[in-house]
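Design job #97: recover the sequence.
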């Protein structure tokens, strides 16, 4: 099996990287300025890292993470030393796998990161980041990235993407439409986001008709900036198919901030169906990322704000939740809806059977907490028998950590080759078929699914 896996891996290891969904900052590529220092680049933006450190009593502020009152005053070298002294906490985790890859492959640092090597790491990485070959665009090209999608909200004016296009640089950095701030009535910025939404579009977003027209306008702007997909981060995958009159009445309460929690969930559910309808019109691929209890640590959220590592997976139901959307659009071969989950119990029971039947559905790869060697393997083992390979979309890294992109794709390619090698060794797949599938998973399927 190992020799077969190595032969398969040789076919895919140097293929271009397709990164069709992620959260890197487009300003990096627009300005193409040097990254600041190791703590700023590798530590402060990475919630995988500081959630583990926080669990062991390390304060976020000491790691350089600002709170609602303003930026952290932590000196970058001291934050890095603190991280290095606690690096042992990441043993056996995908975070250490990715970081060790970065340390060795990019910076040539083969000694283990620890308290006594912290300054050596900090100085070596800082010196490298000052060189022209470590500028964002140079790294993009060194990583062999063919296409990379960032994710912006409807109230983002996409100025950085415009700068990238106007610069003449040929790297393909595109955006994706993430409407959550103006779709989720329970989002803390919803009232001001809705107001800005109306200002940007010139539509009356206090009316249901104007609100939908505003989405269509912004989606068209995003498509013109290169977007091929939308992304929806909802608490659950619930969908609804209300009558126009019911939807209008519901929106009237949402728009003035009078919706109950149940009505907010119903509105999010209706908006997934509305977004599917718009995707059928404009061709944007639709991604649904449900199943996270966001900001579970109330005290941390109140002090530091959202997205600080306290999101927790929750159980979800896809079969019943998606039924209204699928009744309306499930047989539309022109529409692609990519499903992700943090609830692995749904892989074989719900997701694989759904994607193995409905033309509209595809399965996104193991995501977030499950983006690991074991998690990626569990995904293949539990979905392939029912959904096959061609109702999945290959791999996407879904990361803010730019330097980890090659490592994440390399891990995914190795796991897929390992799984395929097992099928070959067990005479369930011929080796020439496995070679084709390996290339499909690494390259062709994400290009096809995301219309790249």
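Job complete. Output follows.
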């Amino acid at each position: 099996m190992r020799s077969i896996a190595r032969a398969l891996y040789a076919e895919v290891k140097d293929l271009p990287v397709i990164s069709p969904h992620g959260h890197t900052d487009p300003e990096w590529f627009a300005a193409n300025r040097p990254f600041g220092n190791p703590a700023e680049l590798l530590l402060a933006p990475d919630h995988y890292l500081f959630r583990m450190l926080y669990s062991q009593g390390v304060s976020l502020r000491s790691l350089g993470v600002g709170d609602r009152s303003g930026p952290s005053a932590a000196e970058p070298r001291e934050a890095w030393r603190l991280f290095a002294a606690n690096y042992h906490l990441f043993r056996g985790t995908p975070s250490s796998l990715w970081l060790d890859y970065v340390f060795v492959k990019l910076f040539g640092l083969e000694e283990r990161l620890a308290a006594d090597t912290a300054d050596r790491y900090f100085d070596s990485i800082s010196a490298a980041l000052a060189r022209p070959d470590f500028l964002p665009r140079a790294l993009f090209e060194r990583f062999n990235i063919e296409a990379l999608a960032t994710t912006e909200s409807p109230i983002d004016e996409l100025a950085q993407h415009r700068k990238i296009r106007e610069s003449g640089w040929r790297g393909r950095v595109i955006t994706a439409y993430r409407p959550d701030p103006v779709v989720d009535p329970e989002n803390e910025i919803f009232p001001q986001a809705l107001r800005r939404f109306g200002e940007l579009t010139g539509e009356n977003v206090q009316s249901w008709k104007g609100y939908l027209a505003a989405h269509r306008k912004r989606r068209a702007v995003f498509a013109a900036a290169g977007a091929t997909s939308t992304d929806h981060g909802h608490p659950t995958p619930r969908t609804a198919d209300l009558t126009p009159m019911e939807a209008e009445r519901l929106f009237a309460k949402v728009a003035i901030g009078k919706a109950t929690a149940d009505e907010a969930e119903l509105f999010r559910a209706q908006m997934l169906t509305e977004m599917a309808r718009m995707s059928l019109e404009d061709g944007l691929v639709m991604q649904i990322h449900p199943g996270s209890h966001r900001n579970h640590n109330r005290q941390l959220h109140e002090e530091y704000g959202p997205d600080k590592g306290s999101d927790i997976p929750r159980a979800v139901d896809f079969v019943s939740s998606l039924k209204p959307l699928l009744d309306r659009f499930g047989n539309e071969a022109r529409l692609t809806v990519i499903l992700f989950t943090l609830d692995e119990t749904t892989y074989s029971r719900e997701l694989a059977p759904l994607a193995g039947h409905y033309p509209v559905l595809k399965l996104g790869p193991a995501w977030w907490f499950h983006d690991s060697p074991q998690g990626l393997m569990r995904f293949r083992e539990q979905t392939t028998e029912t959904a096959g390979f061609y109702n999945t979309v290959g791999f996407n890294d879904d990361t803010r950590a730019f330097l980890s992109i090659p490592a994440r794709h390399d891990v995914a390619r190795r796991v897929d080759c390992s799984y395929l090698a097992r099928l070959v060794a067990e005479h369930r797949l011929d080796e020439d078929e496995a070679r084709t599938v390996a290339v499909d998973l690494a390259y062709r399927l994400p290009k096809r699914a995301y219309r790249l």
